[in-house]
C-alpha cells in the first residue's frame, strides 16, 4: 500500500485535558488545633490549539495519527498547594485550512501565519475546600472535582492560498508552465494525469510576487466523478484569477481550443463559486508548428468574447513574460481591495440557547416512574457544570449541590411546573444524565450541616442525632438535682426495661459504650 505524501483532508479525534480535582484538607500543626481548611485547587486541563504555519503544506501527519489528547491538570494538595496546569497541545496546519464539524458546518477558516484556533478547551480545575470556605461553612469536608475537557471530532480541509490558479485538460502543459515561470519542480511526463496533487510556485513579475497553483487536470464529466473529479477544485477557490491553459497541439480527435475552453468552463460552473474570477487564456505549445497555426485560427474568436489571450510556450519561454505581468496586474488590483490578513486567536464558544435564563426545565417520559409521578429534565450550563463538579460519594458535597440548585431557582421552577415529591429529575443531556428523586422539603443553608463530609439533611434517620434530641427534650423535665449524664442514664435504663421493637434498637442504645460503665466518658468511677 502506497503511503501518501500529500493529504488535503483528514478527520481528527480530539480530547482536551481534564481539570485536576480539588482536595479537602485541614491544616495540622502543633499548638494549632483549629488550623482551618487548606486544600488547594486542581490545575486547568490542557487545551488543543490549531496554529497556521506557512512551512507546513500538507495534513499528512494527521492522516497517520488522527487521535490527539492534551495533558490533564494536576491534583490539588494540602497546605494551599494548587495543582499544575496541563500543557496545551499545539497542532500546526497549512495556511488556508478549513475546520468543520461532523455535520459539515464551518467552524473556522485559518488564514495567515500565526493564526490560532482553540478547538478544544481544557477542563477547569476543581476548587479545594480552602476556596469553598465561607462564614457559614468554615471548614468544608469536601472539594469539587475537575471538569472534563472538550472531546470532539473535526474535519480539516486544506484550500491552498494562491493568487492565480491554472486549470485545463490533462497534458495541457500546466505543470510545464508553472515550472517555467517559477522554481517549482512538479512531476512532468507525456501521459495524462501526471499531476495528482496541487503544485504551488512563487512567481515574480516586476515588483510583484505572487503564488500560482497548478491543480490536476479536468475532463468532461468530472462532476460525475470522471477522471479525478472536482475534488481538487477547492484549491483554486481562494485564487484572484484563473488561467485556462489550452493545448493547441493536441492530437486527440475531435478536440479544439474553443471546445476545450467551453468544457472546462462548464465543469467550473457545475462546481460553483468561481463565476466572478477574472479569466486569462494561455494558448500553450505554440512552439509546435501545428500548435502555432491553430492558435492563430482561434485567437480572434477568443478575444471577441472579451478574454485576454496569450500565445505562449512553456518549452521555449515565448509569451511567458507578457502572461506573468498580466497575472501580476490582476493580483495587485485584488490585493488593494482585500485587507491584509493579521494573525488572530480564535476561541470557539458554545452558542447560548437563551441568554436570559440560566437553565430550562422540560417534562419528559419516565418509564420507571410510579403512578402519578412524572419525569423532569433540567438543562443549562450552570446545573450541568455543577453536577460534573460534584463528588456524589460525599454527602456534604451533594448538599452543597442542592444549595446551589436552590439558589439558582431550580426547585422553585419545578414546583411551579407541577413537580411533586418523588418525581424523577434528570440533569444533563440524554446520553449522560444524573438522576435525582425530587424532595422539595430539604432545607437549604450551610448552617444545617453537621460533621465534616456529612449532611444531615440527606439522612432519613441518624441514631446519634435522635439520642441527642431525646436527651434535650428530657432535660426540660429533669429533676433539680439531675445533671445531663443522669438524664442520659435514666433514658437508657428506661430503654433497657422496654426495647423499642418498632425501631429495631437494642437496650444498649446507639452509642459505642454503655452509660455508667468505665467506657462512659461522663462516669466518675463511683457506683450509684
Automatic annotation (TrEMBL):
Chain intervals for the UniProt region annotation (Disordered): 28-47, 64-89, 451-528
Names of required cofactors: Mg(2+)
GO cellular component terms given for this protein: cytoplasm
The keyword Cytoplasm is assigned to this record: yes
A Gene Ontology BP annotation from the UniProt entry: ribosome biogenesis
Residues where Mg(2+) binds: 175, 195
Residue ranges with Gly residues bias: 36-46
InterPro entries: G_OBG, GTP-bd, GTP-bd_Obg/CgtA, GTP-bd_prot_GTP1/OBG_C_sf, GTP1-OBG_CS, GTP1_OBG_dom, GTP1_OBG_dom_sf, OBG_GTPase
Subunit structure: Monomer.
Biological function: An essential GTPase which binds GTP, GDP and possibly (p)ppGpp with moderate affinity, with high nucleotide exchange rates and a fairly low GTP hydrolysis rate. Plays a role in control of the cell cycle, stress response, ribosome biogenesis and in those bacteria that undergo differentiation, in morphogenesis control.
The protein's name: GTPase Obg
